[in-house]
């Protein structure tokens, strides 16, 4: 039976940790709007072509209203970052959304990121010191990939970094697909919400030089600021988004570059390739997680097919990023590829707010690793790397390395 006649279970499993499922190419070629069954058992449509994914992400008819009664639930227990009521507190569209992005986005400008680079490099250097001291082989994910983005986002939010283990657990429950049960998720979300509420109250009493204090200083909605509830949810969203995705991407990026020694050698010979190399690993990441779900409250056409109102679609940016019609020699890694209009950070009004932060962290980590550990290599065969399962984000459980 061909892919366009069957209902695929989603996420589609891959044979190898860094490679895409074979079905992606088949779907792009013959069934760009496929029928899939989600972990919850609910039905959705999967979009895999570059032009279609870009169109859906830019089209306001495809909304983030995944709490609608007929929207597909992603996980059997509901909840999670996409289906929760908390996700609805930040305005989804229109002036409210633009206003929120303007207020928060001031903290993610290229200028501010450039100012943060030296501090990021300092953190990376110190984490590599610890890794080296513990001796090879080491786990690059636990030793560098995970703590660096957490320290950086904690700095930005004015959150004590010693609480990072708790954030990690809370994040995982919010990104749940199949790993946690409903009661555990609800308890963790309640704890996380309480933690952030207490932190906001403390910052109101004693403001610091951080994003949350500045959002409070902007006043309430009448003064052009946000409601306290929106600030609390913004803090939660940035903590989850600001560490989990980049932490995983650091491990995947280094693994992809070490999987073929010629790539690492090319970067050692010419470190000016770091910027384009980071973009190319983002484009080729075949283990980026669930993709972006959207809900249709009206009928709409995509990829030559009319979708009825009430349809939930999943955009696979990772599949779209390997579309031959958008990228020459799309399956190959070209460290010099430029321009590289990949969709790893989405597109349109909801493209990732923190993408300049993620890019800067990835570039800094790569620069520091090339300088400090030029002989770095994977300590296990690539095929033995294990994927993180059961969460909405993709990643590797460990990245064993030696140097």
Automatic annotation (TrEMBL):
Record key words, sorted: Heme, Iron, Metal-binding, Monooxygenase, Oxidoreductase
Domain of life from the UniProt record: Bacteria
Entries under Gene3D superfamilies matching the protein: Cytochrome P450
GO molecular function, one term: iron ion binding
Cofactor(s) the record lists: heme
Record family assignment: Belongs to the cytochrome P450 family.
PANTHER family (alphabetical): CYTOCHROME P450 BJ-1, P450, PUTATIVE (EUROFUNG)-RELATED
Protein name: Cytochrome
């Amino acid at each position: 039976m061909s892919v366009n006649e069957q209902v695929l279970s989603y996420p589609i499993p891959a044979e190898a940790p860094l490679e895409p499922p074979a079905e992606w190419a088949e779907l792009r070629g013959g069934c760009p709007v496929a029928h899939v069954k989600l972990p919850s058992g609910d039905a959705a449509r999967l979009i895999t072509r570059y032009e279609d994914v870009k169109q859906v992400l830019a089209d306001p008819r495809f909304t983030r209203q995944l709490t609608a009664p007929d929207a597909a639930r992603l996980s059997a227990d509901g909840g999670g970052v996409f289906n929760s009521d908390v996700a609805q507190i930040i305005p989804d569209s229109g002036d409210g959304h633009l206003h929120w992005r303007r207020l928060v986005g001031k903290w993610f400008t290229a200028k501010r990121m450039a100012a943060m680079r030296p501090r990021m490099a300092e953190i990376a250097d110190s984490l590599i010191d610890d890794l080296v001291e513990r001796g090879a082989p080491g786990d690059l994910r636990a030793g560098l990939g995970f703590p660096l983005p957490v320290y950086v986002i904690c700095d930005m939010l004015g959150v004590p970094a010693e609480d990072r283990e708790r954030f990690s657990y809370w994040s995982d429950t919010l990104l749940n697909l199949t790993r946690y049960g409903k009661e555990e998720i609800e308890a963790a979300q309640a704890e996380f919400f309480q933690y952030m509420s207490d932190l906001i109250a403390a910052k109101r009493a004693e403001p610091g030089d951080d994003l949350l204090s500045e959002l409070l200083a902007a006043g309430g909605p009448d003064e052009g600021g946000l409601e306290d509830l929106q600030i609390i949810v913004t803090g939660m969203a940035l903590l989850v988004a600001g560490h989990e995705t980049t932490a995983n991407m650091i491990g995947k990026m280094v693994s992809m570059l070490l999987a073929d020694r010629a790539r690492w050698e090319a970067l050692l010979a010419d470190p000016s390739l770091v910027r384009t190399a980071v973009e190319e690993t983002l484009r080729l990441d075949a283990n980026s997680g669930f993709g972006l779900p959207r809900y249709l409250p009206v009928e709409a056409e995509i990829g030559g097919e009319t979708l009825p109102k009430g349809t939930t679609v999943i955009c696979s940016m990772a599949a779209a990023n390997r579309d031959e019609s958008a990228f020459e020699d799309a399956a190959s890694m070209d460290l010099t590829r430029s321009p590289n209009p990949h969709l790893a950070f989405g597109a349109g009004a909801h493209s990732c707010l923190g993408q300049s932060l993620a890019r800067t962290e990835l570039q800094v980590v790569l620069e520091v690793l090339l300088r400090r550990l030029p002989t770095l290599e994977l300590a296990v065969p690539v095929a033995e790397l294990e994927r993180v399962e059961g969460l909405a984000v993709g990643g590797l459980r460990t990245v064993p390395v030696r140097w």
